[in-house]
Amino acid sequence: MILAAGLDLLSVNPGLLVWTIVTFLIVVFILKTFAWGPILSALDARSEKIHGDIERAEKLKQEAETLLANYKQRIAEAQNEAQAIVNEAKADASNLKNKMIQEANLEIERIKEQSLKEIELSRLKALQDIQNNILELSVSVASKILEKQLKPEDHANFVNSELEKIKKIKL
Questions:
Q1: ∠ Cα 19 25 31 (to 5°)
Q2: According to the model, what pLDDT value does residue 14 have?
Q3: Count of other CB atoms within 10 angstroms of residue 78
Q4: DSSP per residue over 34-90, as a string?
Q5: I need a labelling partner for 136 at 20 to 30 A (CA). Which of 40, 56, 121, 153 fits?
Q6: Which of 114, 153, 117, 120 has the alpha carbon at shortest distance from 128?
């Protein structure tokens, strides 16, 4: 019996075939009328949304590339400006150093000249002191030697002549 039932399934029944085709066509019509339109419109809407998203992504990508280029340009300008500031600071430091060295050299020269003047003045004062001491010693020696033999005028003449001799020796 199993074989007989299996053979029945493989045999074609014309009435059943007609009703199967009619049922299939009704299902296709119902799907086309109620489901196919909304499915196609949903797919179209989805496709348009995807295309819109792709276009927005392209625009955003272009904007990002523009912003990146601007950012790189600003960084380069900032680096150039920073380098210019560093170079200017180095030049200013070098100028200041040279100015300070020049001022120090001028101050050293001024101090040297002042010291030489002070040394010369001290030397002249020391020579004057030596002359005065020699004069006093000479007068003292001469007065002891001559004690009362010289008159005051002779004494002044003697002192003046001795001073002239000392001045000639100095030169």
A1: 135
A2: 84
A3: 10
A4: IIIHHHHHHHHHHHHHHHHHHHHHHHHHHHHHHHHHHHHHHHHHHHHHHHHHHHHHH
A5: 121
A6: 120
Alpha-carbon Rg for the chain in angstroms: 64
Contact 166, 134 (CB under 8 A): yes
> Taking the C-alpha atoms of 47, 48, 49 and 52 in order, what is their torsion angle to the nearest 10 degrees?
130
Contact 150, 158 (CB under 8 A): yes
Please tell me whether residue 167 adopts helix, strand or coil conformation.
Answer: helix
Residue 165: strand, helix, or coil: helix
Answer yes or no: are the C-beta atoms of 170 and 127 closer than 8 Å. Answer: yes
Q: Tell the residue number behind the tokens 């680096």, with chain if given.
A: 79
Which position has the token pair 């100015």? 99
Stretches where the chain sits below pLDDT 70 are 1-9, 142, 144-151, 169-171
- Taking the C-alpha atoms of residue 136 and residue 128, their distance in angstroms, rounded to an integer, is 12
| Cβ burial, residue 10 (10 Å; 0-12/13-18/19+) | exposed
**Phi/psi-derived region of residue 68, left when phi > 0, alpha when psi is between -120 and 50, beta in every other case:** alpha
Q: Give the per-residue pLDDT at 3.
A: 47
pLDDT of residue 119: 93
